[in-house]
Amino acid sequence: MATHESVNTGGARPQEQGTGTPKEMKRELTRYASFAMAFGFVSIATGIFTTYGSVLNSSGPRGIFAWPIAVVGQLSIALVFGALAARIPISGYAYQWVSRLVNPVWGWIMGWISFSFLGVVVVAVDYTIASTILPELLQYQGTQENAWAITAVVILAQAVLVAMSTQLTHSVNKTAVTIQLVGMITLTVLLFGVGAATGKLDFSTLFETAPVADSGYYSLGSAAEVGPFAMAFLLGAFTIVGFESAANLAEETRDPARVIPKAMVQAVLSLGVLGFLFLIAITALIENPAELAASSTPVATVITAVLGSGVGKALLVLVVVSIFSCGLVITMSGTRLVWAMSRDERFPGWRALRKIHPGRGTPLNATLFIFLVAQVVLASFAMSTDALFSLFSAATLLPAIIYAGTVLMYIVKRKSLPPTQGFSLGRWEIPVIVVASVWLVYELLIFRDASFRDPWMYVLVLFAIGGVYFAFLLARRGVSGLTMPDMADVDRALDADGPQAAAVPAQQAALPAPGEVSDR
Fold first, then answer.
1. CB contact set of 487 (below 8 Å; sequence gap of 6+)
2. What global pTM score does this model have?
3. What angle do CA 295, 301, 307 make, to 5 degrees?
4. Which of 55, 97, 177, 260 is a good FRET partner for 295, with 20 to 30 A between their CA atoms?
């Protein structure tokens, strides 16, 4: 194995040897840009439009009450991630944290699971535009074929933007997030207002279970079957994920140890409250839950019926913008993870994928790779009769595995973590850990249901591919050859351009190298 070169501790950024190609990216993201990353990835418009129909079919209107419970669970995870991001603010989030606090072997496994998640979730998000929004907006009959073609074009557009310019991508995302905030608030207010004025708003609908039977509604189910209410948790579990994308761009964020934890928590809280209000509005306006459950575009159908064709379609355009922004953030997050693992020489094709384009300052090859992976995933799922359910289920299962692994690592290593640089759980640490643990165990148990066979197949295939490559790495390098760049050197390099550069070096020198821990 070629040894990792020492990270430059001065102001100049490391270069690819003999090429003049930079290996690091500019630290240019502001507080709002970091929040926009977390908010844009989560995107309640995307999650609710994608999963609401499935929840109606599995749990009925009453299923929306699983949402606030899921938000509390995901918030506890965001708090744990914030505590880690404040200690190890490096691109790659869970991959970096586990690699450095446990060992590089488990870190690699976590990185591959994260890559598998990002490869499928971008398809799930973009498929929503083609399958649940555009048919209602443009009044055409959606088919598997045209959904595939439209999704492929959307994925291409997002990859081109990410490859062209980081600043342009963030400008588009910040604009889209602002539009989503204004649009979703406006849409929710209009639904409540017009619904009340026309007498269509009926809050008793919130407690109905049709088309699901009321008996056994809260049942825990059997070994291969989940109860109706438990299935409703997928709505929040699928939607409130991706807040950690802010941590994945730590090396491009100013003062990341302070900014990123707050961005993740603020995104979960704001989206949780706004999302629940929107769900209440939509659900209270349903005239016939059993009939709406049969619709392929239930949310869009309700909006158009209540607000009229003109206003409804204008707001659906805003939803399309929000969903496109979500896919854009996911694409960027995926490229950063692939780039981070390739920089550490631990990803297939790392020599090409770790390069930063000298003119654009973007990981161009990594972006192209993520684009190709997304197209393969799309082709694998697109002709399924239940493609959207399979996609969002896989995109819910994988982050649950990532979150569970990271929280477990935090529990084991919390007494020996590096010193925090801006965020700490303090006396709330134990309650947060308990809530996160209970929530994750419950969420993972939902996936025992037989309806999740396709998502499990996707996970197993991706794990098998990763296992083959990992076996190759071990055979070629051995466990000792998978070590990470020295923690102290990396942090000094990352902070060289930061606002607190003068105050940080003494503290950073005490941070542990990979596999070591601090007794602070």
1. 88, 100, 418, 511, 512, 513, 514
2. 0.80
3. 165
4. 177
Cα 342 to Cα 27, 105, 319, 349, 377, distances in angstroms: 20, 15, 35, 8, 21
pLDDT at position 249 over 90: no
Tell me the percentage of the chain whose pLDDT exceeds 70.
86
Q: Is 225 helix (H, G, I), strand (E, B) or coil?
A: strand
Residue 512 has pLDDT above 70, yes or no: no
Q: What is residue 515's predicted lDDT score, i.e. its pLDDT?
A: 39
CA dist 212 and 216 (Å) reads 10
Question: What is the pLDDT at residue 491?
Answer: 37
- Residue 256: C-alpha distances to residues 170, 228, 253, 262 (Å): 16, 41, 5, 10
Q: What is the pLDDT of residues 104-129, one digit of tens each?
A: 888 889 899 989 888 888 998 898 88
Q: Which two structure tokens, joined as six digits, stand for 438?
A: 């209970």
Residue matched to tokens 């529990």: 411
